[in-house]
Amino acid sequence: MRNLIRTGGSGVLLLLIMLGGGLLLWVGVPVGWLYIGSQVQAKTNSLGAALAVMFAGVLVSIFAIVPALGWLNGKHADLREARGLESHGNTALEAVMTIAAVIAVIGFGVWFFLIEGPGPSLAPR
């Protein structure tokens, strides 16, 4: 925690942006493309077209977000170097992506088990 504060406000801001990007990668991209795929399937009545759109969209999104996260990680490493802080061998991006994945898994678990439920709905429609 002390090293986090020593990186300065800009370092903390970069970490928060990377965390947002990680959450976007783990949560936003899948949910967003599932929604878009459902809209394509509703309009075209074609599951194949919806799956193709979702697959292509996820790939394009990942290929756009991952290099941006890598660039932010490089900037964070430059900030640490400029402040004279040692490198521990692992990068901030590794920790941020792990934290984002844990948040995503916990969020999914809460949604699945507490909000939506694991089984089919028994309520009549």
- Total helix count? 4
How far apart, in Å, are the first and last alpha carbons? Answer: 52 Å
Integer-rounded radius of gyration: 19 Å
What percentage of amino acids are in beta strands? under 5%
So what's the overall shape?
Answer: elongated
How many E-type strands?
Answer: 0
- Give the helix/strand class: mainly alpha
Structure description:
This protein has 125 residues and is mostly helical. 82% of the residues lie in helices and 0% in strands. It has four helices and no strands. The chain has helices spanning 2-6, 8-44, 47-82, 92-116. Helix 2 (8-44) packs antiparallel against helix 3 and helix 2 (8-44) crosses helix 4. The protein is elongated and about 60 Å long. The termini are far apart. The mean pLDDT is 86.
